[in-house]
Amino acid sequence: MEWTFDTEAEQYEKMRPGYVPALYEDIFSYIPINGASHVLEIGIGGGQAALPFLETGCSLTAVECGGNLADLCCRKFRKFSGFTVVTTRFEEFEQNAHTYDLIYSASAFHWIPEAEGYTKVFNMLKNGGVFARFANHPFFDKGREELSKEIEKIYEVYMPGSHAPEEYGEEKVEKCALIAEKYGFTDISYYLYRRTRTFTAREYIGLLGTYSDHIALEEHIRKDFFSDIENTIEKFGGKITIYDTIDLQLARKP
Question: Global pTM?
Fold first, then answer.
């Protein structure tokens, strides 16, 4: 289903959020990156996470299975001579062992089978190299329970059983971060960041149009679904606030 992102590459790049400055500060405190560093991104998408890494002057290779997204990022980051994109799935990406100082993945690593992903990352890192996995977890408008309940009812009509998220908390962050221990990583750290984003009804529909399971709906169903969501938000004042939790896992290859 991750392939559906590529059909909406421009909208995905426009609507999907970047990441908070504190996250990059924590990564660069854990592993300094400079012009001599070799870095790999797994699943660059619309390039939401890449700029702070590129600005260090490092050589950054991005692996992206979507051709439209890969082309978009080539244009977006064309001024960085050390930037390259390989259009393939990470599972099929071929690279020598002990190549990278840092491998990171932003809201993409969950698409890869756990054992295959962690084992491959471990092998590709230099000794002392670091894996940084981070992801954004959006949650309903907590301050407006009636709006959230109305939206849940709409999901039950169009996507039954698919939209009952729990807010991402520290217990989940720690549990997910410690997975890396099973695959030989040490010196594991994890961090949690929170923010809010507020959208108009129309902007929020634009965001929903970048979610893979929503894109996969038949067009006439998706149109009615989005219309009901938009009308509901308009009924409650025309705006909706999303509460994001971003988790960061840092792990080192001995």
Answer: 0.88
pLDDT of 8 above 90: no
Q: What tokens were used for 35?
A: 């012009």
Q: Any bridge partners for residue 197, and if so which?
A: 242
Q: Name the helix (H) or strand (E) containing 67.
A: helix 67-76
- pLDDT attached to residue 105: 98
pLDDT of residue 125: 98
Whether 53 shows a pLDDT value over 90: the answer reads yes
Judge contact between 77 and 50, C-beta under 8 A: yes
Residue 10: which pLDDT band, with cuts at 50, 70 and 90?
low
Cα separation, 48 vs 17, in Å, equals 7
Q: For the chain, how big is the Rg over CA atoms in Å?
A: 19
Residue 225 buriedness (CB in 10 A; 0-12 / 13-18 / 19+): buried
| Both tokens assigned to 191 | 């961090």
Contacts of 140-149 spanning 24+ positions with Cβ under 8 A:
140/165, 140/242, 140/243, 141/240, 141/241, 141/242, 141/243, 142/167, 142/243, 143/241, 144/236, 144/240, 144/241, 146/236, 147/232, 147/233, 147/236, 147/240
Per-residue exposure over 127-140, b if at least 16 CB sit within 10 Å of its own CB, e if not:
eebbbbbbbbbbbb
Q: Which of 124, 152, 134 is nearest to 253 (CA)?
A: 124
